[in-house]
Amino acid sequence: MITEIAPAPERVAAEPARPHHRRRAWDEVPRWQIYLPLSVYLLFTLIPFYWILLFALRPAGSTSLVPWPMTFDHFQKVWTERSFGTYFANSVYVGIATLLLTTVVALAGGYALARFDFRLKRGFMLALLCSQFVPGALLLVPLFQIFAELKMINSLGSVIIAETVFQLPLSMILISGFIRNVPYSLEEAAWVDGCGRLTAFRIVVLPLLRPGLIAVGSFAFVHAWNHFLFALMFLSDQGKQTIPVGLNTLMSADSVDLGALAAGGIVAAVPVVVVFAFIQKWLITGFSAGAVKG
Amino acid sequence: MAQAAAVAKPPAPPRRRRASATPRRLPYLLIAPAALLMLGFIAYPVISVFYYSLQNYNPTKPWRNGYAGFDNFVHAFTEDPQFWQTLTFSAKWVVVEVGLQLLFGLALALIVNQTFVGRGLGRALVFSPWAVSGVLTSAIWVLLYNSQTGITRYLADLGIGSYGTSWLSDTSTVFPAAVVADLWRGVPFFAILILADLQSVSKDLYEAAEVDGASRLKQFWHITLPHLKDAIVLSTLLRMVWEFNNVDLLYTLTGGGPAGETTTLPLYIANTSVDAHNFGYASALTTVAFAILLFCSIVYLRLSKFGGETK
């Protein structure tokens, strides 16, 4: 059932070409019934993307509907004057640290859940599932107090921990699913060959987990990159803030600089797009591996 | 994955090795980091919320701090119109959003599940807003909705509506405007999940139905929909919880305004605690929100038959 939660976008793309016993041509859905609604929906999807590009690339005050003459002034402004350069570095730091911490901790826990039966296992699984329903947004105040106690307010560490904690449950459930897909006998064979459990895991299991780990890690990164509330609450120092907080600052200004906002938005989107483009082929295998269990 | 827990093998068999000499403690060591993090940063905060819900606690008015019993709850339910207003708005927001997302997501999934030229690209484009963050979604729609150079200006050029219209600051248009912005990002979520589930419908069923002369609508009603039922129920519940909790979009797009028109319960809680420093009362409201979510969780766990699958 967990697979229902798993964002499994491209799994379907991996399906083999449906061969011969497809429906006969005369019974196929009329083409216009596909292309017409699809085009309408595509307009709805793509106009907003075009709109932000338009604003980012056309000069301030222009009302042209094509970004011409093209200017990169907005990007320069947002990067230096509005400190998006700093925000970008902070976001990258938070994203990568969250990715590493989430993956390592979830890998350990996921292995335990996949390979052992232990007394607290069911309780632990239940806690993992229930934690899906605990919203970070409602825990802001106690979390703030905890981080204040730990003297971590205004340090990126607080955001990294908070993002990791709320990423962990799902990551762990997914990873344990991936590990279950690796036959236990492979590990046992490695033990027989004289490997310790850790070595066997490293040599036999870890390489097979790579697609799944990349999928889980990239989601942790993207989530930490996109998430806003923790950074807003725990980081008051301007030099410590992240990209979403910077965007919010641009939006809540008295007179919004639309060009800068659009450029900032694109700066925020680029890493996500790059990550997805780069990992797409891993996502297909990664999530289909996790989803097989259905 | 539901049945997968049953596959878990017992601990290392007798021919164990040095490294696996402590299999009894090993799983606990392995889950310890995760368990500690979750205890410290989820369980403890939850408990402290329960504790403070029974307290008057406001750092700016320390002389009033102390045990309050159920005063906070009584206040919420009997004396605070804003609580009811935000709760009602939350319900309306969740039902409208999830309903429309499901409807459009289902339609979209059925369309891109067909075989047609350009399907791969079509899917990629249609699903793309899914990875966009709430804040970025807000930024995009602020650009679209702004009164000077937004979409209304160009509509006015065409003679539709009037110049200077700002959908986000008008109480009569802010709700649909926010709904559309969130739909833009939310529909792909359902479309992706439903499309994934559509892949496992047996082709034979359709063929048999066709032999029997069932129309496409009948096939959808009697084959596709029953097959999708579980996926739809679960993703709808998850999305409801998510939409209830999510404050990114409304916080940045409307700020809960105009005039508190789009303040959800979680936004109200955030304002109560962050701006008004009324931690005790905010905690009580959080507890109420938890109770609502707990109800959803129980329904969710029931429906997903959790606990039925292990052994």
From TrEMBL, chain A:
Chief localization: membrane
Domain ABC transmembrane type-1: from-to ranges: 88-279
Subcellular location: Cell membrane
InterPro entries xref list: BP-dep_ABC_trans_perm, MetI-like, MetI-like_sf
GO terms (BP aspect): transmembrane transport
Stated family: Belongs to the binding-protein-dependent transport system permease family.
Membrane topology: Multi-pass membrane protein
Alphabetical list of PANTHER family matching this protein: INNER MEMBRANE ABC TRANSPORTER PERMEASE PROTEIN YCJP (PTHR32243:SF18), MALTOSE TRANSPORT SYSTEM PERMEASE-RELATED (PTHR32243)
Keywords associated with the record: Cell membrane, Membrane, Transmembrane, Transmembrane helix, Transport
Protein name per UniProt: Transporter
Record field: transmembrane: 32-57, 92-114, 126-147, 159-179, 200-225, 258-279
Organism per entry: Streptomyces shenzhenensis
Keyword check for Membrane: yes
Range of residues in the leader sequence: none
Gene Ontology CC: plasma membrane
One of the Pfam families matching this protein, by short name: BPD_transp_1
From TrEMBL, chain B:
Pfam family of the protein (one): BPD_transp_1
Residue ranges crossing the lipid bilayer per the database entry: 26-54, 93-112, 124-144, 279-301
Topology term for the membrane: Multi-pass membrane protein
InterPro entries, alphabetized: MetI-like (IPR000515), MetI-like_sf (IPR035906)
GO biological process, one term: transmembrane transport
Cellular compartment(s): Cell membrane
Domain of life: Bacteria
Matching Gene3D superfamilies: MetI-like
GO terms for cellular component: plasma membrane
Domain ABC transmembrane type-1 positions: 87-300
Database matches in CDD domains: TM_PBP2
UniProt keyword list: Cell membrane, Membrane, Transmembrane, Transmembrane helix, Transport
Region (Disordered): 1-20
Family label: Belongs to the binding-protein-dependent transport system permease family.
Protein name as annotated: Transporter
Record organism: Streptomyces shenzhenensis
